[in-house]
Amino acid sequence: MGGGDKPMRQIAGRTILDRVIGRLKPQCDGLILNANGDPARFASFGLPVIADTVKDFPGPLAGILAALDWAATNRPDVAWVLSAAADCPFLPRDLVARLHRARAEQDAQLAVAASGGQSHPVIGLWSVALREELRHALVVEDVRKIDRWTARYKLATVTWPTIPLDPFFNANTMDDIAEAERLAALDGG
């Protein structure tokens, strides 16, 4: 997409990140951003920005671990952390409730979102109690794929419909940004 942070791209006059925050804020007790590099670029959002706690940027699991570590240190009352991609502008307004409900009903240790026959493992509910197991998997076992790690646990998968739009649509290209402009109208702006 020509460089820069994808979540800072605009869709219908708002950044993708602003849309993500708008969807998640009513569902969560607090929000943090996981980003490496200069955190000042996100200062206008007024959220804590945490970098990966594992070196060499080993992918989304490192961001999830950073969030679990942050929660354990700063919010010891929090047992579950939701992760979501910052390039998904149309996240469901019932994301957290449905993931929690499925996890509880299925007595699962983790929960992830799905749509259109595809799992979205970066959009999930993570137990803070599993953070040392995740750290071991990342640092000692060199596990990088979320699915490889989640396969070790009982996992609840919650599926959302894709009509009128896929709530997990993500903007990876300029064509996706153009499509997101069209979808924003379907989503009410």
CATH architecture: Alpha-Beta Complex
Number of helices: 6
Order of helices and strands: EEHEEHEHEEHHEH
CATH class category name: Alpha Beta
Q: Given the C-alpha coordinates, what overall shape results?
A: globular
> Strand order within the widest sheet?
5-7-6-8
CATH superfamily: Spore Coat Polysaccharide Biosynthesis Protein SpsA, Chain A
Q: What percentage of residues falls in helices of 4 or more residues?
A: 25-40%
Oligomer: single chain
Detailed description of the structure:
The chain has a single domain, classed as Spore Coat Polysaccharide Biosynthesis Protein SpsA, Chain A (Alpha-Beta Complex), CATH 3.90.550.10. The chain has six helices and eight strands, in the order ββαββαβαββααβα. Helix 2 runs antiparallel to helix 4. A four-stranded mixed sheet has the order 5-7-6-8, sandwiched between helices. It has a two-stranded antiparallel ribbon with strand order 1-2. The model has no long low-confidence stretch (mean pLDDT 93). 29% of the residues are buried. A hairpin with a 2-residue loop joins strand 6 and strand 7. With 189 residues, it is of the alpha/beta class.
Overview in brief:
This protein is α/β, with parallel strands linked by helices and about 190 residues long. It has helices at about 15-25, 60-75, 95-105, 130-140, 145-150, 175-185; strands at about 10, 15, 35, 50, 80-85, 110-115, 120-125, 155-160. Helices cover about 35% and strands about 20% of the residues.
